[in-house]
Write a structure and sequence with these properties.
Elements lengths: L1 H22 L1 E7 L5 H17 L3 E7 L2 H14 L5 E5 L3 H6 L3 E2 L16 E4 L2 E5 L6 E6 H6 L13 H14 L4 E4 L8 H13 L19 H15 L10 H6 L6 E7 L3 H7 L3 E4 L10 E3 L2 E6 L5 H10 L3 H11 L6 H4 L12 H10 E3 L6 H16 L4 H18 L8
Parallel strand pairs: 1-2, 1-3, 8-9, 11-13
Antiparallel strand pairs: 3-12, 4-12, 5-6, 6-12, 7-9, 7-10
Helix pairs in contact: 2-12, 7-8, 15-16
Length: 421
């Protein structure tokens, strides 16, 4: 009798679990991180924890290679086959929201009030996406190089000026110890250009588009400040201070560690390998070219597709993922910047006194998001081509004027992209 009762209880419990599982509504999720096992491990743990935490929703992840991810989302949107949850690169989000691929998030925004600005994806006054990390770029070098070249170590409070930065590059070249003074990462293309290089333009006082109206690039991409930037940029290549656009990708990956370059303009994702090579690695703030030092902000973020019939469930998953333990887990796994001070204290590298804590400070002090406009996806490509052409010797004024014409024509073709003046 006792055995029969126990067996009956077990069957009842099994039936209950099966009923709960059957009651869960499936939420599909697309992710850009295929091929990154560390990233996948953290994401899969978040998904498993969320699915086990409640009985309403069951998230199922499909991962894509980053190189083909955006095209896959656009094709799915046109075909009406978007999943419930997608991740989106921060600067691309306004275009996807404007194009109708996304809907606003239904999360408690008090949960992100302490986030760094970069991971918050707002468009037209509403929150469409939120990131679990940010990324930052710094000028990487070694203290021994600074000492050998008799250079002042810049700080957040006193970054190098344009004159000091130019003098540092000249000193590195004149030392004869390096193939090039600076590695800009010219082997990388695409989003690297606007993310890494438009902050130089912005520090000079220009920009990709007028952010007051987002209706024109006239005067900001070809004005006096932008011209000064363009001439300086071209001079880096003309004076053999940096590798050209045909840089060997392998030289970008390990050239600094191999002693080819005195300085490297690189991100926190590459920091660990460099620190493991040189004990005296230092990460310097961006120089101030006249209008304050700038670096890029915003990385990949989570959003809910407009096709989702369950935006409440999709938003519930995203809100669940915002817990500090998950923010810290992503940082520990892939080296990116946790978006809150509390999660930073839970990490190996970004806690107070940690070897990469400087990147959190850089993001907090210098980061600037790329233009928050649907037109950014075109502006980024135009900017990339213009900078590559100028690096290869094209006339600066003609190239920047042509870039402005192309951007303005795109804005007009798209009726201003929904911005109201």
């Amino acid at each position: 009798m006792k055995m029969r009762t126990t067996l009956g209880a077990a069957l009842l419990a099994t039936t209950g679990w099966a009923t709960m599982a059957a009651a869960q509504t499936e939420l599909s999720m697309w992710y850009h991180g295929a091929g990154n096992p560390q990233e996948a491990e953290v994401l899969n743990q978040i998904v498993a924890d969320f699915n086990a935490s409640q009985s309403d929703w069951n998230v199922v992840v499909e991962s894509f290679p980053q190189e083909s991810y955006n095209d896959s989302v656009v094709a799915a949107a046109l075909a009406g086959n978007l999943p419930d949850i997608i991740d989106v690169d921060g600067p691309v989000m306004p275009n996807w929201a404007w194009s109708g691929y996304l809907q606003p998030l239904q999360i408690d925004e008090s949960k992100i009030e302490n986030f760094l600005p970069g991971p918050k994806g707002y468009w037209d006054g509403e929150l469409y996406s939120i990131g679990l990390w940010d990324a930052a770029v710094a000028l990487v070098t070694r203290q021994s190089i600074l000492d050998d070249l008799s250079l002042r170590t810049p700080t957040l409070e006193e970054p190098w000026t344009l004159e000091e930065f130019n003098a540092a590059l000249d000193a590195a070249k004149e030392s004869g110890n390096f193939e090039y003074a600076l590695d800009l990462g010219m082997a990388w293309t695409g989003e690297w250009y606007p993310y890494a290089f438009s902050p130089f333009l912005q520090s000079f006082g220009g920009d990709l588009v007028d952010r007051d109206t987002y209706q024109t690039a006239e005067g900001v991409l070809n004005g006096e400040e932008a011209m000064a930037f363009g001439e300086w940029w071209q001079g880096l290549f003309a004076n053999d201070l940096v590798p050209g656009t045909s840089q060997d990708p392998a030289a970008r990956e390990t050239g600094f560690q191999d002693g080819k370059y005195a300085f490297s303009w690189n991100g926190n994702w590459a920091a660990m390998n460099i620190m493991n090579t040189f004990e005296d690695t230092v990460f310097l703030p961006a120089p101030d070219f006249g209008n304050g030092p700038k670096i890029g902000a915003a990385s990949w973020q989570f959003g809910v597709s407009s096709a989702s019939e369950h935006p409440d469930g999709a938003s519930a998953f995203i809100e669940f993922a915002l817990q500090d333990e998950y923010l810290a887990a992503f940082s520990n796994a892939i080296g990116l910047i946790p978006p809150t001070t509390s999660s930073a204290q839970m990490t190996e590298n970004y806690q107070d006194g940690g070897p990469m804590a400087v990147f959190y400070d850089l993001t907090e002090a210098q980061a600037m998001v790329r233009p928050v406009t649907p037109g950014y996806v075109v502006q980024a490509k135009v900017f990339e081509k213009a900078l590559a052409d100028i690096a290869n010797g094209a006339d600066v004024a003609d190239t920047l004027d042509a870039a402005v014409d192309e951007i303005n024509a795109d804005i007009e073709r798209n009726a201003g992209y929904g911005h109201t003046e």
